[in-house]
Design a protein that fits this description.
It contains 15 helices and four strands. α2 packs antiparallel against α7 and α4 runs antiparallel to α7. The chain has about 425 residues and is mostly helical. It is globular.
């Protein structure tokens, strides 16, 4: 009886083994195509959340109450979640990198846009428009020319004001212009608290700082323009779009190089270096990305998440559904399981380090406080995330070597490569 039972068990096990699906190693071209599919999904989600922000801004302008201002701020925060996961597409995809400055440029000289505190200073040697205050100025002079700002429109913001005079700090459009208008300046330094703009700044009947109608017009134009720009990028990754077609109809090796370049450049030069190490070296609260809202911990977290998404070929959409497909991870594992496991572990370690930043913020310690001088535990927490990003970049380099992508070059950063130069 026991023998029959054992034979039955062995037979069942063998049949299960033979009927189990066999997963083939993905083709490089399929990995590249799925990468484009993920791009389309993450930009679609960015557009959906930006449209939600647009509705909240319209509601705020129609009824400038404390509750409606809070709702608009919450919509802005929600819009950052998918967008930051898209930034891994910036490096290696010229069409994204050329466009990115319209939607996510920072830091910005906010005195170009609206009123600022006296501590901001009266002028800047580097930027003649440092205190232009377009909202209060129907016209102003720049480099001997009169700028007509009597009507605040999308064309004025994008065509005239954004990067006025070729100066990158003249950021007139995108997420951070909207952020500044919703929160106002964060005047707390490395102390607790974000910006605290009152809802009455948008109320013509009870205006707290003059020019409320123009301020509302600027906020609406900047938000509408953000939606337009994201809709354009969604189209680039849709079937037939320029970004997609250039990748999926190019060589598979070139496509893989694009993917790995984006991962490594965001991981090392941009996120670990320019966005994190620089601010930590200087202990400067102005060197945090979402500086008006104190949302930087989340932006860094989702930047890192975007890198992990691309390697694993997974993205969780804002509706909760998961997109999965042929992954770079599977391609690397087919040649070197050790390299794949190493990189997956490093990506997990980075996300754990980023979660420490998020958890600290939930406890009331914002990112600008973490990088403040004298905050040893906060500094260590940020440095641990930087070190994890640097370590995972070495894992990305190893993956590139496994895939024989010899021409890969990642973005660097003085703050990591030549920290002494930061203080020169």
């Amino acid at each position: 009886m026991k023998l029959v039972t054992m034979r039955t068990i062995l037979t069942s096990a063998l049949l299960a083994f033979l009927s189990a699906p066999v997963f083939a190693v993905p083709q490089a071209s399929d990995v590249v195509k799925h990468y484009a599919d993920l791009a389309h999904a993450v930009y679609e989600d960015s557009l959906v959340t930006a449209r939600n922000l647009q509705k909240a801004v319209d509601q705020l302008i129609a009824a400038p109450t404390v509750a409606n201002l809070r709702h608009a701020r919450e919509a802005w925060l929600a819009s950052r979640v998918p967008y930051m996961q898209s930034e891994v597409y910036r490096f290696g995809n010229a069409i994204v990198d050329d466009w990115e400055g319209k939607v996510n440029a920072w830091p910005l000289d906010e005195g170009l846009i609206d009123y600022v505190a006296a501590s901001y200073g009266a002028e800047s040697e580097d930027n003649p428009a440092y205190r232009a205050n377009v909202i209060a100025s129907p016209s102003f002079t720049y480099s001997g020319q009169t700028i007509d700002a009597s009507h605040i429109t999308k064309d004025l913001l994008a065509g005239t004001l954004h990067e006025l005079g070729g100066i990158e700090a003249n950021v007139a459009t995108g997420y951070h212009a909207v952020e500044f208008l919703l929160w106002g300046q964060d005047l707390n330094g490395v102390g607790p608290g974000s910006g605290n703009r009152p809802a009455t700044d948008f109320d013509p009947d009870n205006c707290s700082w003059e020019n409320c109608e123009r301020r509302a017009a600027y906020l609406k134009s900047a938000t509408d323009l953000l939606v337009d720009d994201l809709a354009w990028m969604v189209a680039q990754w849709a079937p037939g779009g320029e970004a997609r077609e250039g990748l999926v109809h190019g060589s598979a090796i070139s496509g893989l190089s694009t993917i790995v370049t984006g991962m490594g450049s965001l991981s090392y030069g941009e996120l670990a270096g320019e966005r994190m190490q620089l601010g930590l070296l200087l202990h400067d609260p102005e060197e945090e990305q979402d500086c008006f809202s104190d949302n930087t911990h989340h932006s860094h977290y989702y930047d890192a998440k975007g890198i992990q998404n691309i390697y694993l070929g997974k993205y969780r959409r804002i509706d909760g559904s998961m997109i999965e497909g042929p992954s770079l991870s599977a391609l690397v594992a087919a040649t070197s399981p050790e390299a794949d496991e190493n990189l997956r572990n490093q990506l997990d370690a980075t996300m754990s380090a980023m979660e420490q930043l998020v958890d600290a913020a939930k406890r009331g310690e914002a990112y600008d406080q973490m990088i403040g001088r004298g905050n040893g535990s906060g500094n260590d927490r940020v440095q641990a995330a930087i070190d994890a990003l640097t370590s995972q970049t070495r894992g990305i380099e190893q993956a590139a070597a496994v895939l024989q992508l010899a021409s890969i070059k990642f973005e660097g950063s003085d703050s990591l490569d030549h920290p002494e130069a930061v203080f020169e």
